[in-house]
Design a protein that fits this description.
mainly alpha, elongated
Length: about 140
């Protein structure tokens, strides 16, 4: 597998993270400019942002939870030359679940749908880690 093919889903996940942080900053700025949020109410990190800004902020923060295991897997698989077609295909499935999760998170925030999509991502990532571990441990 080429480095570009392996890293393309990583770049897509990173793009999602940057899009969310930019959206979060703009949403928070808007609430400050409009006066809906006062600086004194958030200056020490208090969770006093309006619902929409909080949803986007929580979704952004979530990109540093489960995806960290994805980044670690790719960072290990690539130099060890174990980033094969299965890893690349599952990487794309994982990233699609992250986009779907983010989409639900910042719109309806339907916990049932959000949890289902999140669990799908967890299971895909778990399968990737098991596959990678078996390839390393069994030298296949």
């Amino acid at each position: 597998m080429s480095i570009q093919m392996v890293l393309l889903p990583v770049f897509a996940q990173v793009a999602l993270t940057f899009a969310l942080v930019i959206w979060m900053v703009l949403a928070r700025r808007e609430t400050l400019v409009s006066g809906e949020t006062k600086i004194r109410d958030i200056a020490l990190g208090e969770p006093n942002w309006p619902k929409g800004a909080t949803q986007i902020g929580n979704c952004y923060r979530n990109q540093f939870e489960l995806p960290v295991l994805f980044y670690a897997l790719i960072a290990l698989a690539l130099p060890l030359r174990h980033a094969d077609l299965f890893i690349v295909l599952m990487s794309w499935v994982f990233v699609v679940t992250r986009f779907a999760h983010a989409g639900v998170f910042v719109t309806s925030n339907d916990l049932g749908r959000r949890s289902t999509v999140w669990l799908a991502g967890v299971l895909v990532l778990l399968a990737m880690w098991i596959y990678f571990a078996l390839k390393i441990l069994l030298l296949i």
